[in-house]
């Protein structure tokens, strides 16, 4: 049976070329996939030329939310935007997932408004998979929530643990709280209070971790607020880039060193690609009633294709169902979300 | 005229061997320096053997603050600790600076209590110099204050700008506020409010910067709270290390690649050393009435030597006097500190 994904065809810096091209690529790669291209038919149809595969349909949406537009404003006034229509398709059961590289604030706000939250979650969060020395770890929240309370971070921890178990296949994920010292007493007020909640959470909580531990792979789930998480991700991207440049400057002197550098640069580039998971395949928004994959605003066709593949994977693996079931079994969490 | 520095000889993971050795090395390198070795004479004297230079004196302090001891507890009860006695020497004018690799919370608390704050500053902050693609930038606060208010971040910005001008010789330092989007409306509540204050500050404020901009060198002063700053620094250290390991894993296959890697590794190692400024020379605590250099707990003799050199440099350059004078000329800042 086909899995149909609603793709916000107008969202992202390189839309609609990248979204249309990405959809066509995905349809070739994933036989089970169907794609609703949501957007302005007069813009989308010409890009398809005569290449209209069987499992691709244009769903009309008159309006486009600009990348720098106010999310709440867009939610209130643009009722026929490509973002809004994509979520409507998901809500009404026509589509089984949404992929968007558009205005991420508007995507978040619309997802919350149209789909609602699953039981036990007061704030949906973005989960990003990071490469580590030992494998992979999930960082949650990576940017959806800038101001958080302790019970929000507790919910992120539960969602991250389910994600780690279901998607990364870690049987009993180790959960760490990002802070500035390993002792439980260290950190800001938010972290100190969260530490207490996590200690009593029943999760495999190993305590505070420091910035230097993120890539060491000693924990499977890194819990932080979206402000800190987003800064960490972007810092990592930027540092890998800066290191490449610094190395290039240093190694300009020797011919042998230059050859060496060309190898090192390849490794750094691959790291950069691995780190920018949104660019590769989109990051899921966990905690809303639906599969939502948020892609990088800079997504090219390849990234859109990967995001559609991720959406398909999430639907097939029943991540949403598992998350909803697991969280509903935690009465204390459900209680905390009612605060 | 000699500059005498009070060295907390009992502070740090490798004290007192590293502190004594570091002091001896510094005295050889810096002819203008004098060092008070503050600590337990029965422990320190044997380490000196017969090598007691003219400008080295042991100043007795009976107690030692453990690395994991409560800072406030230590401040209240250990009145004859090596940390407390070091600051007493500075306060009474016997010494002109303090260097400590000891319990940094206790060093902060004692500095505040004994020396007090300079006019216009409600929260002293740690300034760390980072290498960038274009040169250097100062990150403030790097870990002294985990929970901040907007006017604290404003004060950090002023102190960072003075530091950049006086120490890094940047004529009109560009100040950036670390956030998760470049637009002024993006960020958490703290950052949004601080953005408003910085816009009206009279500083060369360029707006929000993102994590990826830190190492690009587009700003000279990076303003953030100490929780975020500390995580960024430690993440950078850890990522450089992880990249080295990941590269080593990737490049194991080819002989040529291995040669290349040995060059790349050298560059990464140098970056790591540049980044961990505390390890190299200690980071200054700005905003207290005295020159205070905080060294890494893991400081070895070389790091202690460098920290003593940094202290000497700060005294000679009259950083404290310039900072006090510049900040006192900002009535709005002085006002904000009275809140």
How big a fraction of the residues of chain A is strand? 15-25%
Instruction: Output the strand order for the largest sheet of chain A.
Output: 3-2-1-4-11-10-5-6-9-7-8
Q: What is the oligomer described by this structure?
A: homodimer
Q: Unreliable runs of chain A, pLDDT <50, ≥5 residues? A: none
Number of helices of chain A: 13
Content-based structural category of chain A: alpha/beta
SSE succession of chain A: EHEHEHHEHEEHEHEEHHHEEHHH
At the first level of CATH, what is the class of the largest domain in chain A? Alpha Beta
Calculate the mean pLDDT score of chain A and round it: 89
CATH superfamily of the largest domain in chain A: Isopropylmalate Dehydrogenase
Radius of gyration of chain A: 21 Å
Largest protein interface, residues of each chain: A-B, 59 and 59 residues
CATH fold annotation of the largest domain in chain A: Isopropylmalate Dehydrogenase
Give me the count of strands of chain A.
11
Alpha-carbon distance between the two ends of chain A:
41 Å
| Overall CATH architecture of the largest domain in chain A | 3-Layer(aba) Sandwich
Major sheet details of chain A: 11 strands, mixed
| Tally of structural domains of chain A | 2
GO cellular component, one term (chains A, B): cytoplasm
EC number (chains A, B): 2.3.1.274
Enzyme class (chains A, B): transferase
Subcellular location (chains A, B): Cytoplasm
Quick rundown:
By secondary structure, chain A is α/β, with parallel strands linked by helices. Chain A has helices at 17-29, 41-48, 71-77, 82-91, 104-115, 150-166, 189-199, 226-251, 255-275, 277-280, 301-316, 319-328, 331-337; strands at 3-8, 33-39, 56-60, 97-100, 125-131, 136-140, 175-178, 205-209, 221-223, 283-286, 291-294.
């Amino acid at each position: 049976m086909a899995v149909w994904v609603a793709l916000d065809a107008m969202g992202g810096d390189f839309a609609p070329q990248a979204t249309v091209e990405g959809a066509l690529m995905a349809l070739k790669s994933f036989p089970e996939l169907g794609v609703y291209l949501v957007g302005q038919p007069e813009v989308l149809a010409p890009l398809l030329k005569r290449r209209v595969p069987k499992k691709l349909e244009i769903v009309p949406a008159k309006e486009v939310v600009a990348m720098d537009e106010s999310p709440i404003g867009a939610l209130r006034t643009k009722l026929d935007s490509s973002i809004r229509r994509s979520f409507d398709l998901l809500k009404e059961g026509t589509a089984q997932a949404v992929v968007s590289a558009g205005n991420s604030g508007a995507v978040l706000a619309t997802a919350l408004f149209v789909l609602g939250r699953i039981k036990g979650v007061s704030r949906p969060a973005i989960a990003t998979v990071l490469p580590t020395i030992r494998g992979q770890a999930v960082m949650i929240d990576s940017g959806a929530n800038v101001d958080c309370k302790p019970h929000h971070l507790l919910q992120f921890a539960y969602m991250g643990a389910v994600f780690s178990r279901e998607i990364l296949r870690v049987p009993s994920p180790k959960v760490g709280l990002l802070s500035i010292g390993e002792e439980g007493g260290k950190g800001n007020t938010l972290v100190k209070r969260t530490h207490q909640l996590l200690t009593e959470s029943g999760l495999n909580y190993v305590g505070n971790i420091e910035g230097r531990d993120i890539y060491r792979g000693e924990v499977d789930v890194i819990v932080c607020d979206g402000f800190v998480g987003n800064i960490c991700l972007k810092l990592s991207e930027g540092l890998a880039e800066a290191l490449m440049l610094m190395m290039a400057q240093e190694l300009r002197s020797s011919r042998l060193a230059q050859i060496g550098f060309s190898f090192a640069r390849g490794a750094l580039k691959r790291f950069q690609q691995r780190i920018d998971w949104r660019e590769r395949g989109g990051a899921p928004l966990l905690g809303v009633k639906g599969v939502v994959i948020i892609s990088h605003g800079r997504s090219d066709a390849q990234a859109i294709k990967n995001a559609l593949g991720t959406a398909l994977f999430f639907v097939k693996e029943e991540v949403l169902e598992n998350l909803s079931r697991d969280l509903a079994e935690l009465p204390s969490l459900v209680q905390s979300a009612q605060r």
